[in-house]
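Structure in, sequence out. Go:
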């Protein structure tokens, strides 16, 4: 095949999850249902936190930001996939693809930072309860979120600017249902050493930092809980961390699973299917994890639903 550099790429082609057209209606229905459930579930979490005065604490503030981020994360990828399936057109313009890559990076970085911030919040609450209100002030909570947003945007823009310098070939097919940074870079004809090096550095610093923060936070939490004299105090402390630990396990576990699947199998379609686990499943399940395991959240949701039914 003759390779041809393109300085002005018009569009890429997303191959999706399957080339079997008979399965497209099933995939469309499944992803539409998951997207609507994700948006509705996270909106209910946000509304419950906003309407419940007892939930106006740093922990639930971070949870509401996580829900907003999950809605945005799903909205960046799934609607475009649904439109392509409905139109039987798998094309995506160069600008759309680059924008999608940029926003996916922003919201995945934010998810990473938010989980670390929430772990730190639990660390302060359990290990330094008397200083909790002094440390976790509203100004500090807003500041740490703004810093997370800033770092996520800077990281994403750096990757996007590095992609702009690449020239692409005639093979512009992406074996995925959205424009993933690594897949886009693999289509380039020019040298991608700097792009891959930047991805490695960003993953090490912006990914490894929060993971280490989460790990150290829970090491201190476990140490503090084990020193508590009463079993009731231990149970209460662990119960406040259970939902967050499930979300952390879900996000990092699925991401690690995708990495393993990409190294074990040579099938790009199988890797694309596995990628659903870290792009679609965590935002879908997070509202259920936090609402079903949290008494205060369930009570606030019950009151919210009651008010909605009353007005209807």
């Amino acid at each position: 095949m003759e390779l041809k550099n393109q300085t002005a790429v018009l569009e890429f082609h997303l191959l999706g999850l399957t080339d079997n057209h008979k399965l497209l209606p099933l995939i469309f229905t499944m992803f539409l249902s998951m997207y609507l459930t994700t948006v509705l579930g996270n909106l209910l979490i946000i509304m419950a936190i906003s309407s419940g005065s007892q939930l106006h604490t740093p922990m639930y503030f971070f949870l509401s930001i996580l829900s907003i981020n999950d809605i945005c994360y799903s909205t960046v990828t799934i609607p475009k996939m649904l439109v392509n399936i409905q139109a039987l057109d798998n094309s995506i313009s160069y600008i759309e693809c680059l924008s999608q890559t940029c926003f996916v990076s922003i919201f995945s970085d934010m998810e990473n930072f938010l989980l670390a911030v929430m772990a730190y919040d639990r660390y302060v609450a359990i290990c330094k309860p008397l200083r909790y209100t002094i440390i976790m002030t509203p100004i500090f909570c807003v500041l740490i979120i703004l810093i997370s947003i800033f770092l996520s945007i800077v990281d994403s823009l750096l990757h996007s600017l590095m992609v702009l310098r690449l020239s692409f070939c005639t093979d512009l097919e992406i074996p995925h249902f959205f424009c993933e940074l690594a897949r886009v870079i693999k289509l380039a004809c020019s040298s991608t050493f700097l792009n891959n090096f930047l991805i490695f550095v960003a993953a090490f610093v912006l990914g490894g930092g929060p993971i280490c923060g989460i790990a150290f936070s829970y090491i201190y939490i476990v140490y503090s809980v084990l020193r508590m004299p009463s079993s009731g105090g231990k149970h209460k402390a662990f119960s406040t961390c259970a939902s967050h630990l499930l979300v952390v396990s879900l996000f990092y576990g699925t991401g690690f699973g995708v990495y393993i699947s990409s190294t074990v199998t040579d099938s790009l379609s199988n890797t694309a299917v596995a990628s659903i686990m870290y792009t679609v499943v965590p935002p879908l399940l997070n509202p259920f994890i936090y609402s079903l395991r949290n008494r205060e959240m369930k009570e606030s949701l019950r009151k919210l639903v009651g008010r909605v039914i009353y007005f209807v």
